[in-house]
UniProtKB/TrEMBL annotation:
This is Ribosomal protein uS12 methylthiotransferase RimO. It comes from Acinetobacter venetianus (strain ATCC 31012 / DSM 23050 / BCRC 14357 / CCUG 45561 / CIP 110063 / KCTC 2702 / LMG 19082 / RAG-1). One of its GO terms (biological process) is tRNA modification. Residues 4-114 form the MTTase N-terminal domain. CDD domains: Radical_SAM. It catalyses: L-aspartate(89)-[ribosomal protein uS12]-hydrogen + (sulfur carrier)-SH + AH2 + 2 S-adenosyl-L-methionine = 3-methylsulfanyl-L-aspartate(89)-[ribosomal protein uS12]-hydrogen + (sulfur carrier)-H + 5'-deoxyadenosine + L-methionine + A + S-adenosyl-L-homocysteine + 2 H(+). It comes from the Bacteria. SMART domains: Elp3 (SM00729). GO terms for molecular function: 4 iron, 4 sulfur cluster binding; aspartic acid methylthiotransferase activity; metal ion binding; protein methylthiotransferase activity. It is found in: Cytoplasm. Keywords: 4Fe-4S, Cytoplasm, Iron, Iron-sulfur, Metal-binding, Ribonucleoprotein, Ribosomal protein, S-adenosyl-L-methionine, Transferase. Residues 133-370 form the Radical SAM core domain. [4Fe-4S] cluster 2 binds at residues 147, 151, 154. Belongs to the methylthiotransferase family. RimO subfamily. The gene is rimO.
Length: 447
C-alpha cells in the first residue's frame, strides 16, 4: 500500500504556525508523508487565519485554490469558527475544524485518508523537537492558548476561547528539545504571555526533578537556564513583569519585550478594553530602563479607532515621543466581523485614519533612525538568518530584532565559505538607516 500523502497550507500569525507544526508532527508520527504539491496529495489541510478582513479573504482564496487544484480539503484554524462563511463559498470542503483543534483535524484525516497500516514509529523517526516550519536556528514556543481579555477590536477569544496555559514542565521539555536540536533562539508566544499560568492558579509542576510553578516569572527563569536566546512576545505592562526585567539585566533572557500597547489615550484604551489600560506605562518603561538600560521595546498601535479624536491622537503622538520605543508597527483601524468595536459610535473616516497613520509613522521613523544611529561604533552579537545570494553579506539580527517583524543587521564583506545561517557573530556596527544596521565582522562566536 502506498504511503498516504497530505498537503498542507499554513496561513496566519506565529501562533497559527505553531498549530501547523503540531499537526504536521502528528501526521509524520503516524506515518503520513507531507506532499510538496497539490497533485501528489491525497487531501490538503488548510490552516486559516480570521483575524482581519484581508486575512479572511486570503484564507478563503487559499481554500478555493486547494479545492480547484486538489478537491479534497480539510479546513482548520481561526476562520474555522465561521463554518457557514466557509461553506457559503466552498460548500464541498470535507471538514471544518476550529483553531488548535489538533485532534479534530487528525480524526478528519483518518476518516478520509486512513493511516498507513504498517507504520513503525521506531523506524519512521520524527525529530524529537517535532516538525518545524521555521529555519533550524530559531523556533516559536507556544506557552498557552486563548485569552481572558475582551479587547473590543478582537475576536480571538471567541475563536480560541479563554486562556489555557500549558503545564510548565511540558513547555520547558519542549524548549530543551529545541536546544538539543540546534535551535539558538526561542521566541515565546501566546495571546498574553504575562498572564501565563493564571488559569492554573500557578500550578506547581516538575522539570528535571525540580519544582517549577506554571507562572510567567518562573518559566522565564527556567528558560534562562538553557543558555540560548529567549525572546518574549505579547507581554503586557503589569507590575509583575518588573521581575523579568531583572533576568534581562542579568543576561539570562534577551532584554527585549514585545508589548502591543495599541494606543496611549486613556479614553481610547478604555474603549478598546485593553489589558493594563490603567497602568502608568511611561513610569513603568522608565523603571524598566533604569533596571536594564539596554532593554529594547517593540510595539504595535492602531490609529483611527472608533471615537478617536484629534486630541486622543495628539496624546498618542506625545506619548510616543516620550516613550522612545525602539521598534513600532502601526495599523489603521479596520473593522473585524463580530468585534464589538464595530458598534461603537463615531467611526473615523478613511482619509483621516490614513493621515494619522502617516503622521504617526513620521514621528516613529525619526525616533527609530536616531536610536539606530546611536548603535554606530557599538559591538554586538548577531545571529545569522541567511546569506545574500549575490553579495558577500550575511543577513543577521541582534537581540534587538525579532525575525520577520523587526529590522536586520547586514554584516558586510564576509567569507561565505565559513559563515552560515545559525552562526553567532561578534560584529561592529558601521552604519544605520531608519530600520536596519550595517556591520563588519569581528569574529565568529559560535558556529
Ligand atoms: S489581549 Fe486583547 S487583542 Fe490580545 S488576544 Fe486577548 S482580546 Fe485579543
Amino acid at each position: 500500500m502506498k504511503t498516504p500523502k497530505v498537503g498542507f497550507v499554513s496561513l496566519g500569525c506565529p501562533k497559527a504556525l505553531v498549530d501547523s507544526e503540531r499537526i504536521l508532527t502528528q501526521l509524520k508520527t503516524e506515518g503520513y508523508q507531507v506532499a510538496s504539491d497539490y497533485d501528489g496529495a491525497d487531501l490538503v489541510v488548510v490552516n486559516t487565519c480570521g483575524f482581519i478582513e484581508s486575512a479572511v479573504q486570503e484564507s478563503l482564496d487559499a481554500i478555493g485554490e486547494a479545492m480547484s487544484e486538489n478537491g479534497r480539503v480539510i479546513v482548520t484554524g481561526c476562520l474555522g469558527k465561521d463554518e457557514d462563511k466557509i461553506r457559503q463559498m466552498h460548500p464541498n470542503v470535507l471538514k471544518v475544524t476550529g483553531a488548535a483543534a489538533y485532534q479534530d483535524v487528525m480524526e478528519a484525516v483518518h476518516e478520509y485518508v486512513p493511516a498507513p497500516p504498517k507504520h513503525n514509529p521506531f523506524i519512521d523517526l520524527v525529530p524529537e523537537q517535532g516538525v518545524r516550519l521555521t529555519p533550524k536556528h530559531y523556533a516559536y514556543l507556544k506557552i498557552s492558548e486563548g485569552c481572558n481579555h475582551r479587547c473590543t477590536f478582537c475576536i480571538i477569544p471567541s475563536m480560541r476561547g479563554d486562556l489555557v496555559s500549558r503545564p510548565v514542565g511540558k513547555v520547558l521539555d519542549e524548549a530543551a528539545a529545541l536546544k538539543r536540536a540546534g535551535v539558538k533562539e526561542i521566541l515565546v508566544i501566546s495571546q498574553d504571555t504575562s498572564a501565563y499560568g493564571v488559569d492554573t492558579k500557578y500550578k506547581l509542576d516538575f522539570w528535571n526533578g525540580q519544582p517549577v510553578k506554571t507562572k510567567f516569572y518562573d518559566m522565564c527563569e527556567a528558560l534562562g537556564q538553557l543558555g540560548i536566546w529567549v525572546r518574549l512576545h505579547y507581554v503586557y505592562p503589569y507590575p509583575h513583569v518588573d521581575a523579568a526585567i531583572d533576568l534581562m539585566a542579568q543576561g539570562k533572557i534577551l532584554p527585549y519585550l514585545d508589548i502591543p500597547f495599541q494606543h496611549a489615550s486613556p479614553r481610547i484604551l478604555k474603549l478598546m478594553k485593553r489589558p493594563a489600560h490603567s497602568e502608568n506605562t511611561l513610569e513603568r518603561l522608565k523603571l524598566w530602563r533604569e533596571k536594564c538600560p539596554e532593554l529594547v521595546i517593540r510595539s504595535t498601535f492602531v490609529v483611527g479607532f472608533p471615537g478617536e479624536t484629534e486630541e486622543d491622537f495628539q496624546i498618542l503622538l506625545e506619548w510616543l515621543k516620550e516613550a522612545q520605543l525602539d521598534r513600532v508597527g502601526c495599523f489603521t483601524y479596520s473593522p473585524v466581523e463580530g468585534a464589538t468595536a464595530n458598534d461603537l459610535p463615531d467611526h473615523v473616516p478613511e482619509e483621516i485614519k490614513q493621515e494619522r497613520y502617516e503622521r504617526f509613522m513620521e514621528v516613529q521613523q525619526a525616533i527609530s533612525a536616531a536610536k539606530l544611529q546611536k548603535r554606530i561604533g557599538q559591538k554586538m552579537t548577531v545571529l545569522v538568518d541567511s546569506l545574500e545570494e549575490e553579495f558577500p553579506v550575511a543577513v543577521a539580527r541582534s537581540y534587538a530584532d525579532a525575525p520577520e517583524i523587526d529590522g536586520n543587521v547586514f554584516v558586510e564583506d564576509i567569507d561565505k565559505s565559513v559563515i552560515k545561517a545559525g552562526d553567532l557573530l561578534e560584529v561592529e556596527i558601521t552604519d544605520a538607516d531608519e530600520y536596519d544596521l550595517f556591520a563588519k565582522l569581528i569574529q565568529i562566536k559560535s558556529a
